[in-house]
Amino acid sequence: MLIGKNLVLRPLKMSDMEKTYIWRNNIELIKLTQGIRLPKTFEVEKNWFEAVLADKTNKNIYFGIDELSTSEFIGIIQLNNIDYFSGTATWGLIIGEAAKQGKGYGVQAPNLLFQYAFNVLNLRKIFGYAITCNKATLRMHEKIGGFVEEGRLKRHVFFDGEYHDVLILSLFKENFAVNPC
After folding, report:
1. How far apart are CA 117 and CA 123, in angstroms?
2. Which regions of 55-146 does DSSP assign to beta strands (E)?
3. Is the pLDDT of residue 181 over 60?
4. Quick one: pLDDT band at residue 26, thresholds 50, 70, 90?
């Protein structure tokens, strides 16, 4: 477990699936996280969840995000496609509980994850994708600091009747400064 000021990052557990099923079917969350826009049945969610829990490749690491004061499961953060030879990985985050969004958890959880990735796994670069119309995600990257834009995928994602650009944002180990929030 990774313990921060207000959060705990811990391994996912089967009981988390009740909430992930709701989050992964929430169209607003799906649009902003570039998730699969098709409805997911409980069986599909169960298969995905079981595959995540059973993955022994060490290429994907998923953490449940719990609020420290209440032990409430509020989100997921992950490293995917870890390349231990090149020292790279993609990352993703979802604070699924609407009442917990905008409280700084979207900065604290990545800080914990990045400390782990850089100082325990010895990765050197973490990158992700951000839709340019998702202002909250862009602010989160600014608050974390150190990210560089490595590319822009023009008119890459379609929703709400139009195409949106997606930024490729990377954080290198040497640019990461632990944010105390």
Report:
1. 6
2. 61-67, 73-83, 88-95, 125-131
3. no
4. confident
Inter-CA distances, 175 with 85, 113, 145, Å: 20, 15, 8
pLDDT tens column, 80-133: 999 999 999 999 999 998 899 889 999 999 999 999 999 999 999 999 999 998
CA distance linking residue 93 with residue 133, whole number of Å? 17
What is the DSSP track for 101-127?
TTSSHHHHHHHHHHHHHHHTS---EEE
Name residue 117's amino acid: A
Q: Token match 């290429």: residue?
A: 59
* Of 134, 129, 89, 133, the residue nearest 113 (C-alpha): 89
The residue written with tokens 């079917």 in the block is 25
**Residues counted in the chain:** 181
Question: How many Cβ atoms from other residues are within 10 Å of residue 142's Cβ?
Answer: 11
